[in-house]
Specification:
globular; mainly alpha; 4-stranded mixed β-sheet; 15 helices
């Protein structure tokens, strides 16, 4: 749970920094002299109040998300605030912000408030982070690197001409490095590194090399290219996401269930986070914490990618009562009774 918590802190801080930049970008849109480019014609024009409200929610949610206060609520608000910043006008769009919104949304779904958070003080029992949103985040990082490399496979970029036009950050490269041959080597090298990262961050034996290449790439980009702050946000976001690729041994949830339920759980458990045993009742156990009957059923649904959306509804009083009665009616209650 510490890796998701550490990533929560990093993305929260990054989101706050990007929120300050967002106000600088969005505030001119409220001026009557600025041409508006809405996504749809019926969308109202941005106003000072709307932009200020978005940024205030953005910054507040970013801070509370980072410190782990009401993590699920603050993460959700932060995701929606950043999405609003993207959608308020086409001039507010940014690939980096789009990616940050996706990553924060997925991390929120993983329940990252179980460590290094204010939420931990009020929890009656520890909360385990869900695996599948973290896997989707890793896939998203690989997709970013893959398409970054793929879209550069054209003459304009590979010859270094695009790179020559983008240089000019805080650090100015000496003239000896700005010649066409050197720029071509740098351009081709960047494509190779991005393609390498897309694949080898997943590879146990090559991961250390991939992380080193990524640190070098993202450590250089913000200083030699513009704009500095947005590229720093992007580089920090990508480097923070490398935490997801650190191997960890999460305890598998032990599930005891009747034959039909056991088969269904095995079929839906595509990430193999559960160890299923046939038994007469429904129960689960992990990290010394156990659950039986309908409480066990909701715990199982929480960790299945195909079921997570309905899991919160299974805890509603009426549904919980109906579910418990249904299990009793089928004679599958009463605690763990594995069949050996």
């Amino acid at each position: 749970m510490r890796l998701p918590a550490l990533l929560r802190i990093a993305l929260g801080v990054i989101a706050v920094a990007r929120g300050l930049e967002a106000y600088r970008i969005l505030s001119p849109l409220a001026l009557p002299t600025v041409v508006k480019i809405p996504y749809v014609t019926w969308m109202p024009a941005p106003t000072d109040l709307a932009i200020l409200s978005i940024v205030i929610v953005w910054l507040t949610a970013g801070i509370t998300f980072a410190i782990g206060y009401r993590t699920q609520i603050s993460g959700t608000l932060l995701t929606f605030a950043m999405a609003a910043g993207l959608l308020i006008d086409q001039q507010g769009y940014s690939n980096h912000l789009y990616l940050l919104t996706i990553l924060v949304g997925l991390l929120t779904l993983s329940r990252p408030g179980g460590a290094w958070s204010f939420d931990l003080r009020r929890m009656k029992e520890p909360v385990t982070s869900l695996l599948w949103p973290l896997v989707l985040m890793k896939v998203q990082i690989s997709v970013v690197y893959f398409f970054a490399a793929f879209t550069k496979l054209h003459e304009e970029y590979l010859t270094g001409r695009v790179l020559a036009g983008q240089l000019g950050g805080l650090v100015v490269l000496p003239e000896q490095l700005r010649v066409p041959r050197i720029l071509m080597v740098l351009a081709i090298s960047s494509v190779v590194v991005e393609a390498f990262l897309a694949v080898y961050l997943w590879h146990p034996e090559k991961r250390f090399m991939a992380v080193g290449a990524g640190v070098l790439l993202h450590g250089v980009i913000p200083f030699v290219m513009q704009p500095f702050l947005q590229l720093t946000v992007f580089s920090s976001m990508m480097l923070s996401s490398y935490l997801l690729f650190i191997p960890r041994r999460a305890a598998r949830r032990q599930v005891i269930a009747p034959d039909g339920i056991a088969r269904l759980v095995r079929r839906l458990d595509v990430l193999q986070v559960m160890s299923v045993v046939r038994g007469e009742s429904v129960s689960t156990e992990r990290d010394g914490r156990s659950a039986v009957d309908w409480q066990a059923a909701t715990a199982i649904a929480d960790e299945l990618p195909a079921m997570y959306l309905i899991a919160p509804f299974l805890r509603l009083p009426g549904i919980r009562t109906w579910g418990s009665r249904a299990l009793r009616g089928h004679g599958v209650t009463g605690g763990p009774k594995p069949n050996h």
